[in-house]
Design a protein that fits this description.
- By secondary structure, this protein is α+β, with helices and mostly antiparallel strands.
- The chain has two domains: 14-86, no CATH class; 95-316, Fumarylacetoacetate hydrolase, domain 2, CATH 3.90.850.
- The chain has eight helices and 19 strands.
- A seven-stranded mixed β-sheet has the order 7-6-17-11-12-14-8. The chain has a five-stranded antiparallel β-sheet with strand order 4-3-2-1-5.
- The longest helix is centred in the N-terminal third of the chain and has 13 residues, at 56-68.
Length: 317
């Protein structure tokens, strides 16, 4: 169908943060070009992605309209290939991370401890559970992650990340996805050898140290941009892949989650508000280093890819 037809599909966009002479700015990626979001829409508050998400009810339509007219706009643009993309959300108020949310990963980790595969948590009446990463742990696409001197058992975990666009409190799973602005790829890097406190008995209730295990600088690479939720028909049907130095380590699909995203939002929002810009990392499938006892070393390059979203890579140093 000719591009000038009234029935032609309008140009889509991806919401990014890019490095500019003015500092980090929110950008719209339209095709192979990047536009400044505030300048293209004429809305100064859209200079940051957080500013856009806080106005998502109006921003969603404004960004679509701006992207549709970008080709004919006089707004300055720059080639995507020459643009430095940063972590899209700078900085989320909270990063929620789902634990043991793929059956194959949960089974492999149990086997590592000499235990049988855990039963389906739904059959046990269990609910999704999460831990929290600090917001300053995020890392840019292409950033180097310092691990030497901190962890000897640094692990990789590809995860679909959902970005909240509308405040969510006490929402049902049937309405949960309406609060999602979009999706990114993420890597929940984990310092496995820092997860247990030295000098504390393995049988102690206070043995685990989730902070040192999961929250350290660079432990949450995200990106390369936010794909609007309206462009992802089903977040529970996306391919996931992770490579270390070109070797495929994780290869799965979000449909294999134990608790889907809607169930996670429902549980997280009980008597608590999820705010625009909050991130939910939805869990990782099998293929992690902890399952085989193989971990990252300095110089390794980790690349992650999620279907319909894109890819990022980071080097360990």
């Amino acid at each position: 169908m000719p591009s000038g037809s009234a029935s032609a599909k309008p140009a889509g966009y991806k919401l990014a943060t890019y490095k500019s002479s003015e500092g980090p700015r929110a950008g719209l990626v339209v095709g192979e070009e990047v536009f400044d979001a505030a300048k293209l829409t004429g809305k100064p508050a859209y200079a940051t992605v957080i500013g856009i998400l806080e106005d998502w009810k109006s921003a969603e339509g404004a960004l679509k309209k701006a992207a549709a007219g970008a080709a004919k706009s006089r707004a300055k643009r720059q080639p995507l290939a020459k643009t430095k993309l940063l972590a899209p959300v700078r900085f989320p108020s909270t990063i929620y991370c789902a634990g043991a949310n793929y059956a194959d990963h949960a089974a492999a980790m149990a086997a590592r401890e000499g235990n049988p595969p855990p039963p389906d948590p739904h059959a046990q009446g269990l609910k999704p559970w999460h831990f929290i990463k600090a917001s300053r742990t995020i890392a840019d696409p292409g950033a180097t992650i310092k691990m030497t001197g901190y962890a000897k058992a640094m692990d990789w975990e590809i995860e679909l990340a959902a970005v909240i666009g509308r405040p969510a409190k006490d929402v049902t799973k049937e309405k949960a996805l309406a609060h999602v602005a979009g999706y990114m790829a993420s890597n929940d890097l984990s310092a496995r050898d820092r997860g247990r406190r030295p000098g504390v008995s393995d049988t102690s209730f206070f043995k685990m140290d989730w902070t040192k295990h999961k929250t350290f600088e660079g432990s949450c690479p995200i990106g390369p941009w936010i794909v609007p939720a309206s462009d992802i028909a089903d977040p529970q049907n996306l391919g996931l892949k992770l490579w270390v130095n070109g070797e495929l380590k994780q290869d799965s699909n979000t449909g294999k989650m134990l608790f889907n995203l809607a169930e996670q939002i429902e549980q997280l929002s009980i008597n608590m508000t999820l705010h625009p810009g909050d991130l939910i990392l939805t869990g990782t499938p099998s293929g992690t280093g902890a399952e085989s006892g193989t971990f990252l070393k300095a110089g390794d390059v980790v690349k992650i890819w999620i279907e319909k979203i894109g890819e990022i890579e980071n080097r360990m140093v």
